[in-house]
Write a sequence for this structure.
């Protein structure tokens, strides 16, 4: 239910961690990172013209003490949620 809210409404979920900030949100993949990922089989279902040569994925982002992202981990989903992300991306939905 929470991940659906992140995908549908572009919400950022801040996790209750002790020291540093952590969050789950949609992450936009573009540029050389998108090109490399697509060449290796990711984002094959994405219409790269409609998506402006970008893809979207759920990500866990952990920040350091200065507040800058220090680790970014992809969250892999399947089924309806994956289809929803693909549909939104192919319709040109932009996540920030």
């Amino acid at each position: 239910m929470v991940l659906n809210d992140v995908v549908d409404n572009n919400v950022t979920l801040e996790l209750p961690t002790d020291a540093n900030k952590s969050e789950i949100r949609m992450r936009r993949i573009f540029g050389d990172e998108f090109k490399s990922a697509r060449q290796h089989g990711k984002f094959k279902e994405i219409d790269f013209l409609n998506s402006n040569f970008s893809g979207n994925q759920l990500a866990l982002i952990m920040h350091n003490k200065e507040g800058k992202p220090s680790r970014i981990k992809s969250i892999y989903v399947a089924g309806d949620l994956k289809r929803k992300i693909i549909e939104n991306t192919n319709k040109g939905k932009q996540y920030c």
